[in-house]
Specification:
heterodimer; A: mainly alpha; globular; B: 592 residues; eight-stranded mixed beta sheet; 12 helices; 22 strands; gluconate 2-dehydrogenase (acceptor) activity (chain A); EC 1.1.99.3 (chain A); Gluconate_2DH_su3 (chain A)
């Protein structure tokens, strides 16, 4: 089952204020029309956005205070300040363990940076500190699900019994929040590491750390593997790291206690990917190392049809290098810019 | 005891301010003196300033900033009537939007007309293959409108939003490069097709080599600047790569914000109340609807009286609002006097049966949008002969388009291409191959069955204490056979694209609610020819409560192999013109 780590509540905060502080009032585009607009955009994106045309909103339109590019209406919004690494949720010990796990999920060194170099643990810590439950909207009304094998237990008001091999089809159903999953899962990880190798996770060799994570991954695959047998589809190839014995997987589950080790691993992996590849404003992807790894130039304003075929040379940039897009049409030249707020729409 | 604030009566109130509500407002209000109010659960949002700085994949694609707030309201699902139902607690299968403009703000833009045979589904199959071709439990039906009747409305919708495409059938004449299987159209598309991506070109060439008929995706994104019939001026697409799940910052992607809302709001007789949630369609003792009750963001309760109530929210919420409107006259809800609300719930078979890896090739997948690829219809609907096949139905096949971003793609990109989905080897392969892996997708039919339906959940309630809608749905044997056939065709095309490696999913996995497939939840309040086979007539007018109308994909008797927005829009224009020209001369009467 996936996705313990996704979803969220909102949070008040400004977003990209600093990035658009240099919003200009240039009336360069007096001629209406799309050609000049596109040309300017093109120029803007190539030259780093200095030539963007400013807003010329018409007189009868007033933009509500809360509704401007510096404070977008939609939540969740990015953090007001890029997390710096001062821990806000994890203890030092927890942070070291999480960092060690992320560094096995996306290993790296100075020449070929990975999760550690990208400061993924800073991203995860900030995310956990910011959202009491999830970062994405999540329906948390009970009852939650309880898996069973064999005879179904009687239904109760506290839990909905679901055949264990069907649980994966329903997505997140445990009711465990990410904060709880990390706080209770990390000791489980160390219990397992100690039982198998005698020392906590961070003290293991990289090979032994991989062996531990392989077991967690295998627990996750087991919960979905039963599914593919039932549906009659054959798993492609069963090559790769040999799956640990069933008894060993059961023991891993026992070490983790109330936290599902498979879900825990999936959560950390997803968070690692987010921290490696999300905008650096969220605290990870430091130096754009994630985007550089895969050859992604970050957010850009435009590509041409030709560039879609042959590629584009762009300086990779983060969101704070991307100028805000302003409307360039002016009321006197024709229909009022259709993009802006209008009377007749308001909170009831 | 809270007091309910009673508003001045209006002619029309709609639940939701998305595409169909704004079409009604733009088509009804300017030429009449009517007043209309839309109650919208989400916030106001405008191209500027709300989308001016929105290229944040984490926020929009991973944290769903534009989608309905699932923490307040979701849907439960179970695979069959004997399985337990649980809420979709986080976004998976579908992504309904909320806020001004609805899902047509964050959509991908594919704008189809259904095939002429789609509208005569049952009679066509019976006529061509015999009555025993359709399994007993398959409750597919003919639509109460046919293609010819709907064509002028498709045309109007396409010109309203400025669809970019290449006609394949102009008045019966088959044109090179377009979709030769489409129904005849009276005019070409208003704008030329979108540019092709590199991967799209490769797919198109492979299809042509195999004597298939690739054609450009009909796109609700503008390929060039466009002034629409209302006088709105919109810019062409910049291929920026932030489209699905984002609002368009230049207005190139069609949305109510840039097409119908400006016209409607300019009348001063249209009002949208945002952050307000409808909790009830109210009825009088004679069973007729009197208006809607809603709750504002501060918890204040309001009543908006109206002569006509329109269920114009997301399809599933329209079904739920009908079921929740229980009264002495309608003990099972509005439209449900014969127990048909919730029946014929269908979906969309959207899958990626095969993906390929081309070493040392970069396709620039991060550019473009969801429409920058060709499609083929050679295996859609009943375009191909099913005589020797063991299923009905088909799918459009298309190459993976653009708009790939790392944060949402790296998690699954290399599944079935490398053993471990983490670690040094995986990372190295990701670095080499992130822009070198692409798939072929199906946009497939979903027939209706007695076993797939929606009703009210007995356990879970929303933030306002009302029962959630419970979806009972799974793929059936017909779709597994259809998928097997389609997957084999996808593999043939993929081979012709000559990848270095290939990963195939030959069998259709069971439906699961936690994986995104498409937002095309259809049916549940279907239209038909009489109250014995449907909830509404062809205008979406509810048989048993004629001053309630339903718009949107809940009306579809079953779902063909195409995205629904084009047909939803055409039907809404038809309903709007009927409301404008005919309904109010005999209010409360069934339209014929």
């Amino acid at each position: 089952m996936r996705g313990v780590d996704r979803v969220g509540a909102g949070r008040i905060g400004r977003s990209w204020a600093a990035t658009v502080a240099d919003k200009q009032t240039v009336h360069a585009n007096d001629r209406p029309g799309l050609v000049s607009r596109r040309a300017l955009l093109r120029a803007g994106s190539l030259l780093g956005g200095t030539a963007l045309v400013a807003c010329t909103s018409s007189s009868q339109v007033t933009v509500p205070a809360e509704q401007n590019v510096d404070a977008p209406l939609r939540h969740p919004v990015p953090p007001a300040h890029t997390p710096t690494g001062v821990l806000a949720f994890f203890t030092e010990v927890e942070a070291r363990t999480v960092e060690a796990v992320t560094a096995r999920i996306i290993p790296g060194d100075a020449r070929d940076p990975g999760a550690r170099e990208a400061a993924v643990v800073t991203y995860i810590d900030a995310k956990l500190a910011e959202f009491k439950a999830f970062a994405e909207p999540t329906f948390l009304t009970p009852p939650f699900a309880e898996g069973y094998a064999g005879t179904p237990p009687p239904a109760s008001v506290d839990a909905v019994p679901v055949p264990e091999d069907q649980l994966y089809r329903y997505g997140y159903q445990s009711g465990v929040t990410p904060q709880e999953a990390y706080r209770n899962g990390l000791p489980g990880l160390d219990r397992y590491a100690r039982r198998r190798f005698g020392v906590p996770f961070v003290e293991l060799t990289e090979a032994d750390q991989d062996a531990v994570l392989d077991a967690l991954d295998a627990v996750q695959q087991r919960s979905e593997g039963e599914q593919s047998e039932e549906s009659g589809s054959t798993p492609a190839e069963e090559a790769g790291p040999a799956r640990p014995e069933e008894a060993e997987l059961d023991a891993v589950e026992a070490d983790f206690g109330e936290v599902d080790p498979g879900e825990f691993f999936t959560m950390v992996r997803t968070d690692t990917i987010e921290g490696m590849f999300a905008d650096p404003a969220y605290g990870g992807n430091r130096g754009l190392v994630g985007w550089n790894l895969v050859g992604y130039p970050g957010p850009q304003r435009a590509y041409s049809p030709e560039e879609m075929l042959v590629g584009a040379r762009r300086q990779p940039q983060a969101l704070d290098g991307l100028p805000a897009m302003n409307p360039d049409r002016r009321h006197q030249h024709g229909p009022e810019a259709v993009e802006q707020p209008r009377a007749g729409v308001r909170d009831g | 005891m809270t007091t309910v604030r009673r508003h001045s009566p209006v002619e029309i109130v709609t639940i939701g301010a998305g595409m169909t509500a704004s079409i009604l407002a733009a088509r009804v209000l300017p030429e009449t003196g009517h007043r209309m109010v839309s109650i919208e659960q989400g916030p106001a949002q405008w191209t500027y300033p709300d989308f001016a700085h929105n290229h944040d994949s984490l926020r929009y694609s991973q944290r769903f900033a534009m989608m309905q707030d699932l923490s307040k309201l979701s849907w439960t699902w179970r695979p069959n009537a004997s399985a337990p139902a649980l809420p979709m607690r986080q976004y998976g299968s579908f992504h309904p939007g909320q806020g001004l403009g609805g899902s047509l703000v964050h959509w991908t833009g594919l704008t189809w007309r259904f095939l002429p045979t789609d509208f005569k589904y049952r009679s066509h199959h019976v006529e061509r293959y015999g009555a025993d071709r359709i399994p007993a439990e398959m409750t597919v039906r003919d639509w109460p409108v046919d293609y010819a009747e709907l064509e002028p409305y498709y045309d109007a919708f396409e010109y309203d939003i400025g669809v970019s495409g290449l006609a394949g059938n102009l008045g019966g004449r088959i044109l090179p490069g377009g979709n030769p299987f489409e129904g005849p159209r009276q005019r070409p598309y208003p704008n030329p097709p979108m540019a092709d991506s590199a991967f799209g070109k490769l797919f198109g060439q492979a299809c042509s080599e195999r004597d298939l008929h690739p054609f450009p995706t009909p796109s609700g994104l503008l390929s060039r600047g466009w002034t629409d019939p209302y006088g709105n001026v919109r810019a062409g697409c910049l291929y920026c790569g932030f489209c699905t799940r984002f609002g368009c910052e230049v207005g190139a992607k069609a949305s109510p914000l840039t097409t119908w809302l400006p016209v409607a709001l300019a009348t001063d007789r249209y009002e949208v109340r945002t952050r307000c949630h409808v909790v009830r369609i109210d009825t009088a003792t004679d069973g007729r609807a009197t208006g809607v009750t809603y709750v504002d963001a501060q918890g204040g309760e309001h009543f908006q009286p109206a002569e006509v109530v329109i269920a114009s929210a997301y399809s599933l919420e329209n079904v739920r609002n009908l079921l929740l409107a229980r009264s002495d006259k309608h003990p099972q809800g509005i439209g449900n006097d014969r127990g048909l609300v919730g029946r014929n719930y269908t979906y969309q078979l959207e899958q990626t049966p095969v993906k390929g890896l081309w070493e040392n090739t970069r396709f620039n997948f991060f550019m473009g949008n969801g429409c920058t690829v060709p499609q083929i219809y050679d295996y859609n609907g009943d375009v191909f002969d099913h005589s020797d096949l063991d299923f009905v139905g088909g799918a459009a096949l298309f190459a993976e388009a653009g708009q790939r971003d790392p944060v949402t793609s790296v998690g699954t990109l290399l599944e079935d291409l490398t053993d471990r989905q983490w670690g040094a080897e995986w990372k190295a392969m990701l670095g080499r191959s992130w822009d070198s892996v692409g798939g072929i997708n199906t946009e497939g039919e979903s027939p209706a069955y007695t076993g797939n339906f929606c009703d009210l959940d007995p356990t879970y309630t929303d933030a306002w204490g009302l029962p959630l809608l419970r979806i009972t749905f799974d793929w059936m044997e017909n779709e597994r056979r259809m998928y097997r056939f389609l997957a084999a065709r996808c593999v043939e095309i993929m081979r012709a694209m000559r990848p270095d490696r290939m990963a195939v999913q030959p069998e259709l996995p069971p439906y699961r609610i936690d994986e995104y497939q498409s937002t095309h939840a259809t049916g549940g309040a279907i239209m038909g020819t009489d109250p014995g086979n449907s909830v509404t007539n062809s205008y979406g007018q509810v048989w048993d409560t004629p001053n309630v109308f339903v718009t949107g994909a809940a009306l579809f008797p079953q779902n063909p192999g195409a995205n629904p927005s084009g047909t939803v829009g055409a039907l809404a224009i038809r309903t709007a013109e009927t409301l404008r020209d005919r309904y109010f001369s005999a209010p409360g009467e069934l339209l014929t």
